[in-house]
Amino acid sequence: MSFSFSAEWLKTKKSLFRTTLYGSPIVFNLLIFGYIIFANQKVSESNFYFNYFSILNFLLPFTVSFILALMNNCEREAGNFKNIFGLNRHYYFLLSQKFIFSYLVISFVFLFNLLLTIALLKFTFNVPTTSFNSHFLYGSTFIWLAFMTSFVLYFFLSIICSFITTLFIGLASSLLTAILGLTALGNGIWQFFPFTWGSRVIPMLMNNSSLVGFFYEHTYFSYVLLFCPFICFFVSLIISVSLFRK
Hints:
Elements (H helix, E strand, L loop, with lengths): L1 H10 L4 H23 L6 H35 L2 H4 L5 H35 L3 H32 L2 H19 L15 H10 L4 H7 L1 H27 L1
Keywords: Membrane, Transmembrane, Transmembrane helix
């Protein structure tokens, strides 16, 4: 398994994928803290928490779809996924392995982005470490959990669709996140758009101080967050293999 992951990583050598992967957390935090400093914004816990995760949720769909499109485009240009869907009979395993690789890599970048934010908050504004750290770890865990279903869909769309189409889907998702996830226009229909879930989770998190409290208060939504990614994964896996093997 580790050898296969190494092989996947080597495929992206000297590609825009790695540059985007390394640069996205730095660019994101430069934009956030640049705005705070030049606009003389006050860094209070509740305001910064809400604004930070709102911007993060807005950028996630396009950023993740862009990174996935870059990664899978390397495979497409090399042989149109023939090493996965070619003569061997292990295409389900190989495609699942590629998904796990992409998920682990982007999760690591997401974690690095969080740690970079916490470090900048401490050294730039000297915020209370314990309070901000616990809130950010708690919030980031939920945001990434809420984004899991979208991640699954973007991954398989980047396999099935062209590079440009995947980018367009990611851009449209980010715009719809701003419209349906962060405004009253999405009330009543946001549940049907997975990329808006993270935006809607933010106010819920601010009203719950514990993981258990959140699950008790939002039981149905919690089950959707937990099981929907698995259902989407297996359905998308079968569809992708069927399309490439027909």
